[in-house]
Amino acid sequence: MSSTTRITVTLPSDQVAELRKLTDNVSSYVAEAVARQIRHQLLGDDLRHHEEEHGPFSDEELAEARAKIFGSGGSSKDADAA
């Protein structure tokens, strides 16, 4: 198990109420959400860096990436929902 640090986070009461409806383990739920956000941030940074070095992704490259992520029926509408 990785080490942990206890912190205090202030959230709107309505969000806490909804969280408690979703899970009995708010800390774990929040930790997973933070990890997901960090992955998204790092991926975005990597993609921007790639485009700075190699230019924008082509429509074909974007379509191929969507197909790999969402399957052959994937669309940008599906990507927006993810």
Written account of the structure:
With 82 residues, this protein is an all-alpha fold. It is built from four helices and no strands.
Question: What is this structure, in a nutshell?
Answer:
The protein is an all-alpha fold and 82 residues long. It has 4 helices and no strands.
Write the layout of secondary structure elements.
Layout: H1 13-22, H2 26-54, H3 59-70, H4 76-81
Mean pLDDT value: 90
Note the gap between the termini: 29 Å
Number of strands: 0
How would you characterize the largest beta sheet?
A: none
Shape: elongated
Question: Helical proportion?
Answer: 55-70%
Percent strand: under 5%
Poorly predicted runs of 5 or more residues: none
Gyration radius, in Å: 18 Å
**Topology as H/E string?**
HHHH
The DSSP helix count reads 4
Derived from helix and strand composition plus strand pairing, the structural class reads mainly alpha
